[in-house]
Amino acid sequence: MSSTTASGDGTPSLHFDTPTLDRELAALLHSISEHGGYAYVSMAALAAGGDIRAAEAACEMAWEQLHSGPWHSVLPVWRDAYSMACLHVARHHYGNGEFREALRVLDLGIIMGGTLLRKDLDSAVAKVSEQARRTVRVSELGDSGHRFVDRDFNMAEVLQLLPIKSLSSTLVVKKSALSLDKFLKDHYLSRSPVIIRDCMAHWPASSKWNDEDYLLRVAGDRTVPVEVGKNYLCAEWKQELITFSEFIQRIKSGACSLGGPTYLAQHPLFEQINELRKDIFIPDYCFAGGGELRSLNAWFGPAGTVTPLHHDPHHNILAQVVGKKYIRLYSSSLSEELSPHSGTMLSNSSQVVDLDDVDERKFPKVQELEFVDCILEEGEMLYIPPKWWHYVRSLTTSFSVSFWWSEGDNSDAS
Ligand SMILES: O=C(O)CCC(=O)C(=O)O
């Protein structure tokens, strides 16, 4: 797919192929002009001929369209237009041997772009990464030996950070060697949370993801979306696109000083970075009930990240690969009492935002509501039934993976 071609002066230059773009180009440009993107189309035509200025201009035009209103209202054709422009810009950087810049632009195309050219973007990433690795000097290979989480953990200190009544009543039950049958009968069908132990030791991630050098090697130059701020319900909260190595630097430097922790949250990282996808396996439990796997998301951040109380529509296995998290769960039957926000975007989030600081006058009954809670330890998976409310706080640097799956047609759930 990638080839080395001769440049004008006879020196070899690097090139990657874009078979889908080649096939779809005319139809895509036609569709963009039908949506009024004439200026974009003329720039894209020049970009296809190798004009980098035109490629960058096309990228900016599409970027503006992506930010012209709420994300769900952006026309898919503009997302594909953005991917196309990213491919042109990345091809230029790759040809110049600017691998990091090429990867940055390809990742932007993957994260912000459409689905039409996804295969071209993925195969270009694979080629650029391979070439980049070939040219890495031994002195650039990390050997810090840094581990994100070591054994020290002060439980007394941590307890002071947790919401009132934490770990004082009913703990989520923990089970080892839980058979699929037992899981189905005792938890899935009865909508009952459980922590499953001893089921991740065979994941390469279990030994690799605590190692900074490994993560930098496979993902350091990749761009990822992160959330910065106390939590996504706060006014100062924002999203940024930064490289994985910058993100790791923030984790190490105690990033809370920057107005809240930086959290790589609910991102389909494993669709983006194939090397990390190979480090995990989909738990068999996710096929219980005959449903369909809906999404795999990464949750990676320093101690102190908080995901406020909310619920999701799907079954969820939250696998704790590195570090520890405190998790509190309220039954789906308590939805009225937990006062969901009324707007559609946040209707799965509770107005009892900060469980550490509940407004007793507004919500006098909240502290009396029954809940189960736990510290989810490295190597454990928590099953969260659909619509169960959950609040999550990381207690150390933490890397977890969530597996969401839907209800099967034949599920006889109560
Ligand atoms: O780990 C977290 O911070 C939140 C996880 C979560 O909300 C989920 O898996 O649905």
TrEMBL record:
SMART domains linked to this entry: JmjC (SM00558)
Keyword Chaperone recorded: no
Cross-referenced PROSITE patterns: JMJC (PS51184)
Intracellular or extracellular location(s): Nucleus
Keyword list, A-Z: Dioxygenase, Iron, Metal-binding, Nucleus, Oxidoreductase
Location of the JmjC domain: 271-414
CC annotations in GO: nucleus
Swiss-Prot/TrEMBL cofactor(s): Fe(2+)
Protein name, as recorded: JmjC domain-containing protein
